[in-house]
Amino acid sequence: MVKRPSKPRSVPLRKSQPPDLKGGRRRSRDPEQPALPFDPMPDRIEPCLALLKSSAPSGPDWIFEIKWDGYRLSVHLDHGQVRIITRGGHDWTHRFPTIQAAAKVLPVGTAILDGEAVVLDDIGRSDFSALQQALRGRIGKRSAEEAIFVAFDLLYFDGHDLRNLEQESRRHLLEDLIPADGGIRLSQEIEGDGPAILAAACEHGLEGIIAKRRDEPYRSGRGGEWVKVKCIQSEGFAIIGYERSTAAFGGIGRLLLAARKDGQLVYVGGCGTGFNERSATDLRKQLDEIVIDKPAVDTGRKKRDAVYVRPVLIAEIEFRAWTADQKLRHSSFKGLRDPKDNADIYRLFD
Question: Which Pfam families match (predicted)?
Fold first, then answer.
């Protein structure tokens, strides 16, 4: 078993400013760590997914981190060759040149890092809309070079598959590998108890926190080893149409949205805010290519000036709450999820 540090490297979540996003100082690897048998390097690993909860867990069995708002990726390093793979298994290496360059100089021959590609705002918070602008590749204020990789797990290291090691041991090895700054950074462990950390994260305007069971191995899928708790809810919804408006950007007065329930899409209301001229114009062009005659989902009362589309585009929607009849409240458009990101459509439960 990997020797654990005598004192876990973590940081308090201060109330005066957002948490430091830089990785901690490097330490020399422990020469007493036992040699492990060599394992073949996986071509791809299905990610461990966090289970959404309404309240933060408590107690010493949990490790807490910030929840990052970006694209889930794995970085594969094989003796100087880098592949950056999306959650859906697509190769996006060319889309993240800064991350690719940072991976090439990591002090390791082979590794698989699990983490999130993000673009940070002026005070160090991840900004999903800014990341989307970077990935569009447009000439403007942002470019793909601004995206960095926040690493929160190490799945393969120097010829060894680490998935059967417990979370704390994998994190110890990850801390030793990640430099203090640059295109790949460490998602730091936050000291404290879950409810207090969540309250501080929300006070800082962060999306939420992730809690991970300290002694669990890495398991693909949504098994409950990782838990996410959000300050403001943000989920993916299928776009099933829009209502026209002559006054709104792109002529989109309100998006019509759907979630999944019992394996079927169901209407969950609309979203009329969060657009700017560029995002609305780009979205309108994509919607005009998938127009259909009748709604794919029953929307109840007939919508005035509605245009219906095939439900193939997934919008990331931020919202505050649900109505009693399961409609979104105070919703705002954050951007489109890329189909290759393999994003989920939100699931409703009775």
Answer: DNA_ligase_A_C, DNA_ligase_A_M
